[in-house]
Design a protein that fits this description.
- This protein is of the alpha+beta class.
- The protein folds into 2 domains: 2-229, no CATH class; 235-288, no CATH class.
- It is built from 13 helices and 6 strands.
- A 4-stranded mixed beta sheet has the order 1-5-4-6, sandwiched between helices. A two-stranded antiparallel sheet has the order 2-3.
- The longest helix has 21 residues, at 2-22.
- The protein is globular and about 60 Å long.
């Protein structure tokens, strides 16, 4: 299932890259900007500067779910396409197992594509998102499926883990709060990041043990599995993340200019006929 989704995104990326070159858009300067010898502080500061976010910015969000949504929208604004999907295309009978893939990134100088497995807990997706973003700055495509979000052993993955952790929860902020409030749930509410991110960060900073982290993580995932199910929500709202309004805007722009047929637009987006038209009207501002 993962392979099919990978190929779908690769096809979208190939088309969009060619289209951007045709429009004489310049390559993205931040792709491959850093190496594995870059310090965490410099790395994280550059990410924040590019995204226009200050240390501790998450605390201004209403909830940690809002934090995830704001991050995705902000990342798309700097030229990266973010896809959230837990199934292959729009086929609800073909789920993508979390144990097979939490997410991946297809790095490209013109238009990187990031994928988050929406079958994974939203709490875990927050960490995966920034881990993948770090890969873009390193210029290295990769998949992300670490079991229980535990620290990696590969040099590149270790760096991406540390960047994601520091970006989401700066060490000095968590240590300061932990003195008076050593409670993962309450700290997640206060810092507006998920409980899993707080737990993972507390593990990194040796505020909790691996055993405590295992216990917390497994309990959270079990509760997530129990709650999971029911309605898939509004189709157009779900499709917004499956397709990406940014990607769809380029497709629609190409259609309007005669560079792309509707038939090809349907194939690229996985949306057909009136469904495509209504999606464009609801979620897309055509790129001029």
């Amino acid at each position: 299932m993962f392979t099919i989704q990978y190929l779908i995104l690769q096809r979208r990326q190939d088309w969009l890259r060619d289209y951007l070159i045709q429009l004489e858009i310049h390559p993205l300067a931040y792709v491959g900007k850093f190496g594995t010898d870059t310090s965490i502080d410099i790395f994280v500061k550059d990410l924040r500067d590019k995204l226009g976010l200050q240390a501790g910015w998450t605390m201004t969000c209403p909830t940690w779910e809002d934090t995830l949504g704001i991050l995705i929208d902000t990342i798309e604004r700097i030229g990266i396409i973010v896809i959230q999907n837990g199934i292959v295309g729009n086929n609800t009978s073909r789920p993508i197992p979390v144990e097979e893939c939490r997410g991946f990134v297809l790095v490209d100088d013109y238009v990187p594509f990031m994928f988050l497995n929406n079958a994974d807990a939203k709490a875990a997706q927050l960490f995966t998102l920034i881990h993948e973003l770090a890969h873009v700055w390193l210029g290295k495509s990769a998949g992300f499926n670490q079991d229980q979000l535990l620290p990696a052993s590969n040099e590149t993955e270790i760096l991406c883990d540390r960047v994601a952790a520091e970006f989401l929860v700066p060490a000095h902020i968590l240590r300061e709060f932990w003195k008076d409030l050593a409670d993962i749930q309450k700290l997640a509410t206060r810092l507006k990041v998920s409980t899993i991110v707080i737990a993972r960060r507390a593990l990194d900073l040796e505020l909790i043990s691996k055993t405590q982290f295992y216990t917390f993580y497994n309990k959270y995932i079990e509760q997530f599995r129990v709650k999971k199910g029911g309605s898939g929500g509004n189709f157009y709202s779900t499709s917004k993340r499956r397709v990406s309004p940014t990607f769809a805007s380029f497709v629609d722009s190409a259609v309007q200019s005669g560079e792309l047929t509707y038939k090809d637009a349907f194939k690229l987006t996985g949306l057909y006929g009136n469904v495509y038209t209504q999606f464009i009207q609801k979620h897309v501002t055509t790129v001029k």
